[in-house]
Amino acid sequence: MSGILVVLEQREGKLHGMSFEALAAAQQMAAELSLPAYAVVLGNGIQPVAAEVAAFQFNKVHAVEHALLADYTADGYKIALKQLIELHHPTWVIFPHTYQVRDFAPGLAASLSRVLVSDVIAHRVENGKLVLVRQLFQGKMNADVRCEGEAPYFASIQAGAFRSENARKADATAAVEVMTPAIESNQIRTKSLERFRESQRAVDLGAAERIVSVGRGIREAENIAIVQRLAEAMGAELAASRPICDNGWLPMERQVGSSGQTVAPKLYVAVGISGAIQHLVGMKGSKTIVAINKDPEAPIFEVADYGIVGDLFQIVPAIIEALKK
């Protein structure tokens, strides 16, 4: 199976939002390299999920089924995917860059004496080979990565690097092939507990279509209520830059940036955020960015599609009133 294989993450029969971004990335890479594209989902009783994926443009969808895959474990996923890869020999294996992938994918690559190129933000094709782009030093520098040696090669896609709406549906449903890997219970060395942070969050910012984010320009914790009202008027989630969360004005789960969440909503409104590189890394993949800042030289305006220069304490209430009308 020389081609692009994308590993799609599912939870309780529902595909993770970032899986669709990885799906779009795999389809695009396959088209540019003139290679077939394949998808794989893992779990137990996942035929409905596999059927959902089969509606997209793939040469085949692999449903890896086993009772020991009902609950995620790094050991189970590594064993099952290694067997699938050794059976079909894909050229590239693509993942969404989720917490789960960060847990098992490096070990999977190492078990095949390969490395994982993580957090890819872009790619291009040179001389028939894929060149991946990933960021270094919290987004201050981009690095080109070329994989040498024999396939397979492994890469994970940063949230927002590819648009999920670019995933292409097919005219005809792709074939679904069920595989039952050889896994023994004594090979599973860990027991799944509550998922780290993602299951504990009151909000998953990565799934939000609209986000209103607040920065140091708000001055005091009591003033955040102004931005909260804007978020409510827009039907948006409230987020923040790191200083706001470090001060305890909003919970850490609402932080956007290199040390918080990476988001790519349809609309991102940055209120009183100057635009430090650590924050830009976490939101510059947003489809439309609106910035409100009194400093016309603020770096946030370099990535904004629309900018409003002025006092947020005058502008935000005026926008709220306009939205109410």
The Cα radius of gyration reads 21 Å
- Mean pLDDT, to the nearest integer, reads 92
Strand segment tally: 16
What is the oligomer described by this structure? single chain
Count of helical regions: 9
The structural class is: alpha/beta
Main beta sheet: strand number and arrangement?
9 strands, mixed
SSE pattern: EEEHEHEHEHEEEEEEHEHEHEHEH
Strand content: 25-35%
| Cα-to-Cα separation, first versus last residue | 57 Å
- Point out poorly predicted stretches: none
Q: Which strand order do you get reading across the main beta sheet?
A: 9-8-7-10-6-1-4-5-11
Q: Which shape, going by the Cα principal axes?
A: elongated
Query: What share of residues is helical?
Result: 25-40%
Q: What would the keywords be for this entry?
A:
elongated; 325 residues; single chain; 9 helices; five-stranded parallel β-sheet; 16 strands; alpha/beta
Tell me about this structure.
- Strands 9-8-7-10-6-1-4-5-11 form a nine-stranded mixed β-sheet, with helices on both faces.
- It is built from nine helices and 16 strands.
- By secondary structure, the chain is an alpha/beta fold.
- The model has no long low-confidence stretch (mean pLDDT 92).
